[in-house]
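#help-structures
NK: newbie question, is this the right format to request a structure? protein is Peptidase S1 domain-containing protein
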Amino acid sequence: MSGKRFVPDDSEPECPYRKYVCCEKRSALEGPRTTTGKPTSDATCGFRSRKRTFPWMVIVYREELDDPTNQLFYQCGASLIAPNVALTVAHCVLDKPKERLVIRAGEWRLETEHQNRRVAQLITRKASTVHSLANDVALIVLSEPFQLTETIQPICLPPKGTSFDRSDCFTVGWDRMLVCNGFAMLVKRTWGEQAVVPHDVCPHVLPPVRPVQPFLCASGVITQDVCPRNSTGFPLVCPIPGSPHHYHQAGIVAMPNGCDDSGAPGIFVQVAHYRDWINQQLVLVVRNCEYQAVKTEPIVHEWVVGR
């Protein structure tokens, strides 16, 4: 399927939400595959991202009022869960005016074709703060939907109550230090290495400052070649049991594991725990169509990562 619109047969109901993408009952999304249908395995400079490999990744940029160069600065990552809604961690956007945020999809190499959108609404849970991982989840409602293409597609979310205890999950990040022959969006070499730590074991391997439940933690082999310095907000993706090469989003990177030899696991927001809340907000977004009238001028900026 590769995340494309699911065309139901006679036994499947029509997607009830206008402008949204309904996943099959198994919530499947084709994973990191090449155009030949084989998983990407040839890697230099980490796992090199190819066109169409991760179409659900989006980037959150910010504008600076005092910047005379009209540049965009990298803020964090996110995942596209509907043509006009992205999912990220709350601490990425809580203290940022929505008018200063720009969401970009379809950028798999520097200076490739992409789409930019303004932000119409930021939705967070109560008690979310920039200093805590409690309720650290946010929805970014766009001023207008992305036009879905082969490089821009939504990812599916796991059903409520889904548990993850696997060794074949992976994360995808964007790192300026990993630009290699023009490729900048890289996946950690994590097949069989990025393991979701069992829930009863995770608290015992965390540092003294621990996140508030619920969360996932996962660890892998960390080297300087695959260090995800700017992976906050990007998804942790795991295979769907019984469905080879199909994936859904298990978590959101909240506290990436460090680029050192400490072995500390990364901390991820547990998406399945918030599935009911996400569904409720999506229904409200569909009912409130006012944001669709928001139009913006074309956004022209120079790409910059951080300061």
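mod (FA): yep, format's fine, and the tokens are attached above. Confidence is low (pLDDT under 50) at residues 1-49, 176-193, 221-227, 290-307.
NK: thank you!
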